[in-house]
Write a structure and sequence with these properties.
Number of strands: 4
Largest sheet: 2 strands, parallel
Order of helices and strands: EEEHHHHHEH
Distance between the termini: 27 Å
Number of helices: 6
Mean pLDDT: 97
Structural class: mainly alpha
Strand content: 5-15%
Length: 145
């Protein structure tokens, strides 16, 4: 099986830092990273502060805000829903994800994120697994269309 081990270059569209507007729960964010970081807030008014941030700015702010109490229990579901929104709201991106075929998608990184990705061969790769799940959903939808 082929592997895509980093979300850069030809595969930068897989990254949450890729600039693609995402409408999530009625709010438009400039990237899936901004949408994800905003979900750490419980109130919509607090989420709005993420609507004009670059992915890097959103990630930094996400480290400083007060986390909603249920965050650890809902973060994987939130990421799944946001990634699904990204690839279903942008047909071009959905097609690019679809065309990764059967490749294993690995969010390889150098910043020691071993929950969402893999660093130095170690990690749970939750983002890669979510992307492969969404790709399977796109395949199923096309098969049934």
């Amino acid at each position: 099986m082929n592997k895509i081990e980093r979300f850069d270059g030809d595969f930068d569209f897989l990254s949450n830092f890729f600039p693609a507007d995402v409408r999530f729960e009625g709010i438009l964010y400039p990237s899936s990273e901004a949408a994800f970081q905003a979900q750490k807030c419980f109130k919509n008014d607090d989420k709005l502060q993420f609507t004009h941030l670059t992915p890097s700015q959103a990630k930094r702010l996400g480290r400083k805000i007060y986390l909603r109490p249920d965050w650890e229990n809902i973060k994987v579901d939130m990421m799944t829903r946001i990634v699904r929104a990204k690839f279903t709201q942008h047909e071009v991106l959905g097609n690019l994800l679809y065309r990764t075929g059967e490749s294993e998608l690995i969010e390889g990184n150098t910043w020691n994120d071993t929950f969402w990705g893999v660093c130095n061969g170690v990690g749970e790769n939750h983002l890669g697994k979510i992307l492969m799940q969404i790709r399977d959903e796109l395949k199923e939808a096309r098969k049934n269309a």
